[in-house]
């Protein structure tokens, strides 16, 4: 395959090629010669070598801060492995020319001399952004399933604990650790009890993901000195969160040695408190990579800690069965509230705080079903920010985001209490006006247009919107209703913008 055919193949297959000549077997030598192919540059939105020079910094400076150290470390480790046992195959994010980060998969191989020293390394880059986001969406759906599963298990545990004998308690604790460890995608989950008089911890229960080594036997009677000041922190109800070993202060030297012995890269520990008494802690760790724990994960661990605290308190004071059951019911209620919050976030647009497109589609479907039973007027208003692309291009995405947030607040304050408003996509918004004919919807649209025109978002002098309105006809499909409103919106923009246009009759 000649160079021209290879270039065409790479361009249309979405593959970017790169290589580096290693001078004196030194991957950091400034004389190393780099080559980024035309298809490589285009993956990032660049066209010429002047825009994206053949230098290491052209690529390394665009690595996402959370991925940069790991990526460079993997690259160097691959190059310096004379035994060729370390592959170069990983995923990371790069900042494109438009300022947005995208996910890529990079692979490479190294040509070596007789002694195994690197001479030349070459590889490819593939855009996996859409598939990665789809995978993350699927993972979020799985999280919701895990929340339901955990809620069911916690409810079963609360019921069973009222009848459980003391010698059956360990079984229930291990089951709960397994559920939570799976939900948090942890490598290990464990419970520690404490002896405040003799000042040591003891690992009492442990769950390990498949392929992860157990360390429960190594963690018996661990001195409080391994974690200076942790007792005082726990007694105040504060968790211990470590996202990377390098974040440990110097006085935690022996703690670092203990964590390294277990292969831990990141860990979160939450105290177990019952009536102000410290019973121990529950913890989760990751041995595969450093990670930041999300607010949802921290909230879930806090709920788990309350659950375990109630269970261990009952284990210590078995005669207080009724009190322990009440505490677990409180935990379950908080878990239900946490699940409701997750569900709320799933139907909310994170930038504007309005409902998102999925929620609006559900509302439209419910309203359509209601109208089949009880016919009533239904109108929708589809609106678009005028010249929004120019705003982003001229003032940047930060100003564009600010415009969308302020606009959302204005629209939310202007619509009626029974109207449903959502961000439909990009700079488009939709209002579902129930029990509203086209003329009443036009009045509402004009109010919205006027209020937006009064809005001031520096450095912009004025913001305007164009609106398309449609009233549902008898038996009209929702999709057709939206199409008619969209066509009316298109007319509003093509006929001068900053106006409301009625859709053609059904």
Architecture overview:
This protein is an alpha+beta fold and 506 residues long. The protein has three domains: 3-127, Beta-Lactamase (2-Layer Sandwich); 133-346, GAF domain (Beta-Lactamase); 357-502, Reverse transcriptase/Diguanylate cyclase domain (Alpha-Beta Plaits), CATH 3.30.70. Helices cover 45% and strands 22% of the residues. The chain has 15 helices and 16 strands. It has helices spanning 3-13, 38-43, 56-60, 65-80, 129-161, 169-183, 230-235, 253-261, 295-316, 321-346, 357-373, 388-395, 397-414, 438-454, 478-494; strands at residues 15-21, 33-36, 88-95, 101-112, 118-127, 188-195, 200-208, 222-223, 240-242, 266-274, 277-286, 378-385, 420-425, 428-434, 465-471, 500-502. The strands form three sheets. It has a six-stranded antiparallel sheet. Helix 5 runs antiparallel to helix 6, helix 5 (129-161) packs antiparallel against helix 10 and helix 9 runs antiparallel to helix 10. It is flat, with a radius of gyration of 29 Å. The protein starts with a helix and ends with a strand.
């Amino acid at each position: 395959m000649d160079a021209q055919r290879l270039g065409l193949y790479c361009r249309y297959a979405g593959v970017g090629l790169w290589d580096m000549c290693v001078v004196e077997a030194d991957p950091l030598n400034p004389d190393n010669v780099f080559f980024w192919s035309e298809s490589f540059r285009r993956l990032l939105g660049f066209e010429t070598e002047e825009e994206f020079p053949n230098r290491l910094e052209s690529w390394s400076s665009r690595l996402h801060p959370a991925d940069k150290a790991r990526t460079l470390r993997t690259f160097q480790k691959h190059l310096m492995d004379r035994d060729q046992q370390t592959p170069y195959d990983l995923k990371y994010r790069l900042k494109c020319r438009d300022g947005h980060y995208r996910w890529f998969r990079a692979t490479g191989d190294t040509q070596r001399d007789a002694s195994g020293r690197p001479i030349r390394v070459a590889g490819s880059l593939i855009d996996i952004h859409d598939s990665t986001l789809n995978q993350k969406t699927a993972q979020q759906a799985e999280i919701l399933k895990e929340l339901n599963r955990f809620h069911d298990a916690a409810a079963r545990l609360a019921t069973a604990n009222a009848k459980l004998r003391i010698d059956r308690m360990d079984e229930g604790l291990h089951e709960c650790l397994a559920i939570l460890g799976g939900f948090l995608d942890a490598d290990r989950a464990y419970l520690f009890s404490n002896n405040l008089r003799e000042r040591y911890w003891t690992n009492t229960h442990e769950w390990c993901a498949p392929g992860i080594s157990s360390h429960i036997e190594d963690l018996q009677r661990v001195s409080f000195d391994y974690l200076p000041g942790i007792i005082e922190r726990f007694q105040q109800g504060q968790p211990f969160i470590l996202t990377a070993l390098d974040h440990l202060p110097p006085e935690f030297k022996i703690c670092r040695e203990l964590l390294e012995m277990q292969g831990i890269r990141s860990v979160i520990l939450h105290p177990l408190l019952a009536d102000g008494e410290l019973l121990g802690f529950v913890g989760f760790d990751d041995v595969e990579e450093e990670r930041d724990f999300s607010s949802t994960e921290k909230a879930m661990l806090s709920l788990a800690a309350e659950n375990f605290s109630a269970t261990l308190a009952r284990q210590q004071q078995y005669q207080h069965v009724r009190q322990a059951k009440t505490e677990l019911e409180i935990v379950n209620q908080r878990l239900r509230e946490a699940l409701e919050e997750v569900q709320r976030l799933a139907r909310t647009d994170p930038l504007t705080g309005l409902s998102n497109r999925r929620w609006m589609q559900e509302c439209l479907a419910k309203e359509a079903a209601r109208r089949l039973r009880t016919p009533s007027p239904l109108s929708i208003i589809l609106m678009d920010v005028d010249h929004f692309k120019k705003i982003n291009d001229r003032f940047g995405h930060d100003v564009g985001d600010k415009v969308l947030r302020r606009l959302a607040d204005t629209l939310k304050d202007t619509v009626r209490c029974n109207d449903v408003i959502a961000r439909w996509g990009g700079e488009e918004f939709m209002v579902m006006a129930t029990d509203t004919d086209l003329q009443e919807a036009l009045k509402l649209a004009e109010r919205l247009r006027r209020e937006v025109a009064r809005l001031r978002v520096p450095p912009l002098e004025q913001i305007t919107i164009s609106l398309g309105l449609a009233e549902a006809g008898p038996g009209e499909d929702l999709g057709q209703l939206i199409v008619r409103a969209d066509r009316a919106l298109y007319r509003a923009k093509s006929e001068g913008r900053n106006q409301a246009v009625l859709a053609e009759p059904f």
